[in-house]
Predict the 3D structure of the following.
Amino acid sequence: MNIIMYLVVAAVALIVGVVVANYMSKRNAKSQANEIVEKARLEAEVLKNNEVIKGKEEGMAIKSDAEKQANSRLAKVQSSEAKAKQREMQLNQLQGDLQRKRNELDTLKQRIDNQTNELEFRRKEVDKLEKSVRETLEHVSGLTADEAKEKLVESLKDEAKTAAASYINDIMDDAKLTANKEAKRIIVETIQRVATETAIENAVTVFHIDNDEIKGRIIGREGRNIRALEAATGIEIIVDDTPEAIVLSGFDPVRREIARLALHQLVADGRIHPARIEEVVAKVRRQVEEEVIETGKRTAIDMGIHGLHPELIRLIGKMKYRSSYGQNLLQHSRETANLCAIMASELGLNPKKARRAGLLHDIGKVPDDEPELPHAQLGMKLAEKYKEKADICNAIGAHHDEEEATSLYAPIVQVCDAISGARPGARREVVEAYIKRLNDLEKLALSYPGVVKTYAIQAGRELRVIVGADKISDAETEKLSTEIAQKIQDELTYPGQVRITVIRETRAVSYAK
């Protein structure tokens, strides 16, 4: 193509030369045209030769590249052939190994079949021998196989029960050390952070006077004044030889407080007669009712509890004049409320709700009427009546397990109520009930076979059970202690916890004469 281009250029130059020759015909146009034509021909020849040389060089370069690529492909093909031959050799070797292993497996299978046949033969012989031995044993022992199996199962059951009791005790000990560790920490910290008084109230109030002459005025002519005072207050007034003191006896602390305040005003005024007594008692009763409301309001403010219904505030104030097992009810409720708030904070709950539930948990003990309901359920109904929230009502009703707990505040109130009631000095117990509880503990343990003696010690906090060494084994003592503990939980009522210690010992006694 380059040659054609140059020929075209030469032709154009020739035409130009002809045109110029024609143009310069008058000035030797012909000679100049010839020169131009010759010059153009020479230039075209040179260009033609250059292009021919260049084409040859390019052809040789293309041929050289093609030879190189062919040689490279040939080398790759030869390498692939070598690898294929090597793999073929490896496959042949693996095929030979596989055939040898197949032969070995066939040999092993034949050997296993032989051993299986031999084992089957021996098993049949063992079955025959076992049958013969069983028949011999049945003949010697006089028991059939089923009867012997039942006896073996019974003995294994007893062993399993003993082992299970020991295992359960170990698991319970581990659980107490691990799972309850955090709960113990929370309870201990809660108790330590609450400081309470340990004083308790009595069923009597002592009214102090300046001199014994006032006793006669209080009694009045033929006892008219003292009878009027007892009729107006509902309190028994004991005037005896106690110097400078009059005893006011009654189960209701509110009535005792009314009688005490009325006596104080009558003695201070000096006018003591039946009409004046009725007037003063009525006035004092109104003052006490106002004091009840004021006490309820002050308690709610001190505890940081707001939005209580006025009737609930009045019931809280009445707690000041009530007691439970010798423990002032208002102090117990305040203490329980503080414990609940602390424990709720430790557990990440709302301390205000917990304090509210703790303060209201015993309002069922101070109703105006006396319905036939447990105080927890009655308190729950009162809280529902006066629009307390559902979780607060449930915590009140469930703190003695008489209602099902549906919120986390219920177990908190239950635990804190027990902590407040079980601390030293919080509550008193009648001597007869205390002795009866100890006797019940001892009788319950004596009802088990193998028990020789029982002793309730540490004010009923521990029960020691002495068993006969010839009747109960060491392993069975753990089972016995667990059973006694479970029965005490199910049948008896007791504060705190009771530790059961089972003692088994062997004594050898001899006398030197």
